[in-house]
Amino acid sequence: NPCSVNVDPIEKKPLFHFLPGSLSYSIATVGCNFKCRFCQNADIAQMPSDHNGAIMGDRYTPEEVVDAAETGGCRSISYTYTEPTIFFELAYDTAKLAHKKGIRNVFVTNGYMTEEALNMINPYLDAANVDLKAFTDNYYKELCGAKRKHVLETLKLMKSLGVFVEVTTLIVTGLNDDEAELKELASFIKNDLGSETPWHISR
């Protein structure tokens, strides 16, 4: 049941080096597997836990999503705004149909997924923007309720599988803006993902 459906510029994902200047059909359902205290989309990402399990949205079939993307002149479908692995079955079934029609598939994700899930969607997943929220285990544990190592593993696996990757870090003043930490994060991107990997730093 997608709760948000929009036609966006691909640069809004943000992806600046994947089909630049094109439109992406963007969908999300409520929910997330993180509980970030600074969440920018908390109204939908945290809706089930904040509203007694409420699941809001309108029913769409994978066929309807792909048809709408075609009608909207979109060259890709982005599974975004919340965490796409929360609605993995819908994303997977939609991505397979989109792939057959030459429409690309994009995950905008926190990167917290199993190797099995990534390998399953990989034949149909063309690009991803992954939030690398900080570079300390404590930040992930205290502010996100997660473990950093799994995100790093996902990023490296995506690159090895040939998924086009861009990385985003949201700077939260006083929490993840230490210069030494940011240099360490940048070194990880350069050395483990490749110096060609774009890094978006958001305010």
Roughly how much helix do the residues carry, as a percent range? 25-40%
Share in β-strands = 15-25%
The backbone outline, from C-alpha atoms, is globular
Largest sheet: 7 strands, mixed
Widest sheet, order of strands: 1-2-3-4-5-6-7
Q: List the total number of helices.
A: 8
N-C termini distance:
31 Å
Q: Please state the structural category.
A: alpha/beta
**Rg measurement, Å:** 16 Å
Count of distinct strands: 7
* Low-pLDDT regions: none
What is the residue-mean pLDDT, rounded to a whole number? 95
Give the H and E element order. Answer: EEHHHEHEHEHHEHE
Summarize this structure as a short list of keywords or feature phrases.
37% helix; 19% strand; alpha/beta; 203 residues; seven-stranded mixed sheet; 7 strands
Q: Can you put this structure into words, describing what you see?
A:
With 203 residues, this protein is of the alpha/beta class. Helix content is 37%, strand content 19%. The chain has helices at residues 42-45, 47-50, 62-71, 88-100, 115-121, 137-144, 148-161, 179-193, and strands at 4-9, 23-28, 76-79, 104-109, 127-131, 164-170, 199-202. It has a 7-stranded mixed sheet. Helix 3 packs across helix 4. The chain is globular, with a radius of gyration of 16 Å. The two termini are 31 Å apart. The mean pLDDT is 95.
